[in-house]
Structures are given as C-alpha cells and as structure tokens.
C-alpha cells in the first residue's frame, strides 16, 4: 500500500535534495583535489574511498527525517539529480549511483521492518550501501584488474567512510535535530 506524503514531508525532501546536491558537488571537488594529490603516490583510488560516504548521506538523512518506505531511495536520487543540475562532472551517471546507494540504505530499514529509526538500521544501511555501490563501481571501473589486496583495501576504506558519514555524522545531526525539537516545545 502506498503511503501518503504530507506537504511538509515533500518540502523537507526537496530541501534535503537541494542541500545534499551541494554537499555532493563539494565532494566532487574534494575528490578531484585528492585525486591530483594522491595519484602520483599511487593512492588516487583510495582517496575517493575515504570521502565516498559524503555521497551517501542524503539517503539515511531522508529516511530518519521522513520515516516512510522509499524515502531513502527517493532522497538519494533527488540529491543526485540536484548534483547533476548543479553541474557535476560525473554527469547523469549520478542518478544510477544515487538509486544504488539509496537502495542500500533502504535495505537497512527493510531489515528492521521499518519499525526502527535509530542507529541499527543506519548500520545495516551503511553495509548495504557499501556492498551495492562497490559492486557497481567494481563493474563500472574494471576493478577486477587490481590485486585482491587492493580490492579489499578499497572496499574496507569505503565501508569505513560510509559508516562515518552515513551512520556517525547522520546520528550526530539527528541528535542535534531532536534536541532542537525538544527546545522548541519548551
């Protein structure tokens, strides 16, 4: 059954997409800078994995603020669309990446039956996002040419990044948001 969205939720999702589209653009510039600095050392690929979690934050934030089925996927895809409209050098491919990352996050909430909106589904979502996005990247960029230890390193660094940005940072922001909501009712 399709859940109805309130006008407030639609406006909040649009705001999140606009905001995170800008965050994603910033991550793109940071990625390019890290690539320039780290490629001569042979670490260009690892640099992108360190900040990869920045590109995944819209999904868990949307799911936590709008606790409805599909909000993680929709939040991440709309943020990717905003990034594309802002002029991302990654082009329209960000839409597929956004869908894959959003689906990974959505799985964290599916596993808990959409009954929990706390740390646990964020962790599950970070794992799902890392696995799904890494498979996509592995195929897209031909990671099969790298030795197993490099592939393992890339995966683990990406997982740590997604856990940091998609779990720790989102949890911190939600604590601040909930605290502000309590203060607003005093």
TrEMBL record:
Keywords recorded for this protein, A-Z: Membrane, Transmembrane, Transmembrane helix
Coiled coil stretches, renumbered: none
Highest rank taxon of the organism: Bacteria
Keyword Cell membrane recorded: no
Transmembrane segments: 36-58, 70-89, 121-139, 145-173
A Pfam family that the UniProt record links to this protein: ABC_cobalt
Protein name per Swiss-Prot or TrEMBL: HMP/thiamine permease protein YkoE
Name of the gene this protein is made from: ykoE_1
């Amino acid at each position: 059954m399709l859940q109805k969205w309130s006008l407030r939720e639609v406006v909040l999702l649009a705001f999140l997409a606009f905001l995170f589209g800008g965050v994603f653009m910033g991550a793109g510039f940071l990625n390019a800078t890290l690539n320039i600095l780290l490629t001569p050392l042979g670490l260009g690929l690892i640099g992108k994995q360190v900040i990869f979690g920045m590109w995944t934050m819209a999904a868990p934030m949307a799911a936590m603020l709008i606790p409805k089925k599909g909000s993680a996927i929709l939040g991440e895809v709309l943020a990717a669309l905003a990034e594309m409209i802002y002029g991302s050098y990654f082009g329209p491919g960000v839409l597929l990446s956004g869908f894959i990352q959003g689906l990974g996050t959505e799985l964290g909430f599916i596993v808990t039956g959409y009954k929990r909106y706390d740390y646990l589904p964020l962790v599950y979502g970070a794992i799902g996002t890392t696995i799904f996005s890494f498979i996509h990247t592995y195929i897209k960029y031909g990671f099969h040419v790298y030795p197993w230890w490099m592939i393992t390193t890339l995966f683990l660094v990406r997982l740590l990044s997604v856990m940091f940005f998609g779990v720790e940072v989102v949890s911190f922001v939600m604590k601040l948001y909930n605290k502000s909501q309590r203060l607003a009712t005093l």
